[in-house]
Design a protein that fits this description.
The complex is a heterodimer. Helix content of chain A is about 70%, strand content about 0%. Among the domains of chain A are: about 80 residues, Four Helix Bundle (Hemerythrin (Met), subunit A) (Up-down Bundle); about 35 residues. Chain A is built from 6 helices and no strands. By secondary structure, chain B is mostly helical. Chain B has one domain: Orthogonal Bundle (Helix Hairpins), CATH 1.10.287.3510. Chain B is elongated. The relative contact order of chain B is 0.13. Classes of the chains: A mainly alpha, B mainly alpha. Chains A and B meet through helix 1, helix 2, helix 3, helix 4 and helix 5 of A and helix 1, helix 2 and helix 3 of B.
Chain lengths: ~180, ~100
């Protein structure tokens, strides 16, 4: 029962991802992007990370999709139905994307991990662990002796500079306008 | 209760990554290209969590990396959309194959 739902979820993710990148109307694309991200958060739940699933819904479905919809609305007259959505390399990019996927599949099938030589490859049941639990994740991020604390501070600086940079780039230039 | 082999998560991530590659390469609109990039980042996140859960379940490195990837993806989306809006103001269009100011 739970297994069938995983494959249904995977089908929904793949179908909505394909629709996101092939539909003509950009607004529909953004809505299907939200559906894809929702499905991925369901996969995170399957992997036992409730906290990351919630973060995925909050940030991707809540923030990034709204940001994308704002971007679409601010550049609105480009979503005309008559405009071609694919560039001249569309066929070539299908070939390249298929090649990337096939190479990834082949690499997966031939890796010792998949051949069952690694003990974890035989494991089909997730070991109940503390990972993904917010009580375990928080101290891991800010503990000074593990090396993630520095990255944590760096990411906060990156977020601040991205915030300031986005405002500076998108702002109208007063002197020129 | 949960008996899905780890390979199926990795196959799903590979398919999602391939779709993202297709979107980045084939779409004309810069916002669609951004959507493709977000999809590729999500595929990477699935891989991180799958390996963290099935292989090395004592380490929290995988979930921590997912947190960092999500953070950086959000920052990237904000800056990219700001650039799209600035380009739209300059050129009245956001087609990536028409933006070649930097071409030598």
């Amino acid at each position: 029962m739970t297994n069938t739902f995983f494959y249904i979820l995977s089908g929904v993710i793949v179908a909505s991802a394909l629709l996101t990148l092939t539909l003509k109307n950009l607004f529909h694309c953004a809505l299907f992007l939200a559906l894809t991200m929702f499905g991925v958060s369901g996969i995170f739940l399957y992997l036992g990370s409730e906290f990351l699933a919630a973060v995925q819904v909050l940030i991707y479905v809540g923030a990034v999709t709204v940001l994308v919809i704002f971007g679409i609305m601010l550049t609105r007259d480009v979503m005309d139905d008559k405009i071609k959505t694919m560039n001249q390399q569309a066929l070539l990019s299908v070939v390249i994307a298929l090649a990337v996927t096939v190479v990834a599949f082949l690499a997966l099938c031939q890796s010792p991990f998949m051949a069952g030589e690694h003990p974890a490859a035989l494991l089909t049941q997730i070991v109940p662990a503390n990972s993904g639990d917010v009580y375990a994740l928080g101290p891991e991020l800010i503990r000074p002796d593990k090396g993630f604390a520095f990255a944590f501070e760096l990411v906060s600086i990156l977020l601040l500079s991205a915030l300031v940079g986005a405002i500076v780039i998108a702002r109208k230039d007063k002197e020129k306008a | 209760m949960n008996s899905i082999p780890v390979a199926h998560y990795l196959y799903l991530a590979a398919i999602l990554f391939g779709i993202g590659v297709f979107g980045v390469l084939a779409r004309k609109n810069a916002i669609s290209v951004l959507m493709g990039v977000e999809m590729m980042l999500n595929a990477v996140n699935i891989n991180y969590l799958a390996f963290a859960k099935y292989w090395n379940w004592n380490s929290l490195t995988g979930p921590v990396f997912v947190v960092f990837v999500i953070t950086i993806a959000a920052a990237e989306a904000a800056v990219a959309l700001a650039i799209v809006i600035a380009i739209y103001r300059q050129m009245k269009g956001v087609n990536v194959d028409e933006i070649h100011y930097l071409k030598g």
